[in-house]
Amino acid sequence: MSLTLSMDFRFTTSIEKLWSALTDSSKLAKWITENDFKPVVGHRFQFRHQPSEWWDGIVEGEVLIVDEPNRLSYTWATGDEKHTVTLTLQDLGDGKVNLHLEQTGFSNAQGLEGAKYGWGAWVGELEKLLEQ
Amino acid sequence: MNENNQMRDVFDAIADPTRRRLIHLLAEAEEKPLHELTAQFHMGRTAVSKHLTILKEAGLVHDRKVGRETRFRLNASPLREVQDWVAFYSKFWSTNMLRLNQLLEEEEE
């Protein structure tokens, strides 16, 4: 099975500043958590969140794509879940930058076949379906 | 999760576009017979029936015999597992992105 979470965020900043906030370890520490991230393909890192009773807080990853300042991708694994996070930055002009986030989730043994088309949109419809 | 004696993972069941379409078709009506569902696809009755069996094994579809036809009905509750799974990550990122926004605003000052 596979599933893609797709989200867009807009920031009032420059694409360079957003890139820096997404890749600089000390900046990541300010908005995500303590980490040893480096924007270097193949680099392995950890995000160490505050543990809770149901989560050890550790996210382990490996950098897959570094295309400054447009695209950043890394694996993102915690517990039994191993995901890939891809961040795409787009300069919208007027001091606005769009950040597109895709998180592709793969659960355990079921064949890591990659994201299926249509999944992103379908996720949004789930909520409606469940409300019926 | 096993309250319906699920034989199949709900994620597995909805990984296929035909089965997602079936779920949507069944969401539109209280109950639908197989021939009405089959009419919506470019595939035979047997193929559609196999997809319905997979949905049934995941607890997403219930069926009953009425005379000579089988009627299908949606049971959306196993989808909650998928929703919870997705909601966790979307909440995780939304919260972090709010913090990122604050950080970027502070940098501008």
Automatic annotation (TrEMBL), chain A:
Domain Activator of Hsp90 ATPase homologue 1/2-like C-terminal: 13-131
Gene3D superfamilies from the UniProt entry: 3.30.530.20
SUPFAM superfamilies the record matches: Bet v1-like (SSF55961)
Domain of life: Bacteria
InterPro entries (UniProt xref): ASHA1/2-like_C, START-like_dom_sf
Family (UniProt): Belongs to the AHA1 family.
Protein name: Uncharacterized protein YndB with AHSA1/START domain
Organism: Desmospora activa DSM 45169
